[in-house]
Design a protein that fits this description.
Strand 5, helix 3 and strand 6 form a beta-alpha-beta unit. Helix 6 packs across helix 7. The protein has eleven helices and eight strands. The protein has one domain: Rossmann fold. The protein is an alpha/beta fold.
């Protein structure tokens, strides 16, 4: 059980930085007070997915939202290649600076793999896991229910490494409106439930991420695999999936929930890869119930 919660209004975040071992400056936001809940983004995200979750919980929990290296307000990585393990190490440094001995770790998309790695390597730091719209590894193999993205990866790497200036120019000038239309065409979002402005926030940030960082982590998403140790992650876990998620399909969540020893599964009907934005009321209530009943009492 955590410390007694001091309730207060929904204030703005406390902004902090910490220096990574390779010298990269890591930025993070801290909201509220109480038992710690840490939120980890997906690839090329810096918080858009938590827009309706943070206000719901910040008057009862101490929420930390790190910006990955090369994302948001964190600096460009000093290390040439960015790997999942770098993100895990960075997270531990943030927890150390904040004096957090144990927290519930929430992850979305790629953040699920970061959370699972932390729970495997440092289970003493993890009180529970909230795993949203993610998988346990090799995520490009399931994108759109095909392996097309796997075959495109070598071409993407070749272009970024051999024509960096041209790729950077195209990346920074890619029309956001076209990106939104592609998301609709590929059925990556539910146009009835999702708000256009929320996706625009993501797409604008995507343009600011360096292509080299994006490609490096994209490669990680294909080759990083937590399957080998899922059965060893013995902490309370809530797995949340979108019924129509075509990036991390629901079967991944079902397998993950069956394999994790202390997991429960919620499939959000009608939702896609951005369930916390599409049906926030259900997602927030499910997380709240999980935190209170299986992690710690904070109400």
């Amino acid at each position: 059980m955590g410390e007694k919660v001091k309730r207060r209004g929904k204030e703005g975040p406390r902004n902090e930085t910490v220096r990574a071992r390779d010298g990269t400056t890591l930025f993070y936001e801290a909201f509220g007070e109480g038992d710690p809940l840490i939120l980890l983004d997906g690839l090329a995200c810096h918080g858009f997915i938590w827009k309706r979750l943070i206000p719901y919980f910040q008057d009862r929990f101490r929420i930390l939202h790190p910006h990955y290296r090369g994302h948001g307000r964190s600096s460009r990585p000093r290390t040439p290649q960015t790997r999942i393990m770098h993100l895990v190490e960075d997270l531990v440094l943030v927890m150390e600076k904040e004096g957090i001995r144990q927290a519930v770790i929430g992850g979305h998309s790629m953040g699920v793999e970061v959370a699972l790695e932390l729970a495997h390597l440092r289970d003493d730091l993890v009180r529970g896991l909230v795993l949203i719209n993610g998988g346990y590894g090799r995520l490009l193999s399931t994108f759109q229910d095909t392996d097309l993205a796997v075959h495109l990866l070598p071409l993407i790497k070749h272009l970024e490494r051999n024509y960096p200036d041209a790729v950077r120019f195209a990346w920074k000038n890619f029309p956001i409106s076209f990106g939104y239309k592609m998301a609709l065409r590929l059925r990556q979002i539910n146009p009835i439930l999702a708000r256009k402005q929320d996706l625009y926030v993501y797409l604008r940030h995507l343009q600011r991420v360096e292509p080299s960082v994006f490609v490096s982590l994209l490669e990680e998403m294909q080759y990083h695999d937590t399957t080998r140790f899922l059965e060893e992650v013995k902490v309370p876990s809530l797995v949340i999936a979108g019924e129509h998620d075509l990036f991390t399909p629901v079967q991944l969540a079902r397998t993950m929930a069956r394999t994790l020893p202390e997991a429960e599964l919620l499939v959000v009907r009608g939702a896609t890869h951005i369930a916390p934005l599409e049906i926030p009321e259900l997602v927030n209530l499910a997380i709240e119930k999980f935190l209170i009943e299986r992690c710690w009492i904070a109400d």
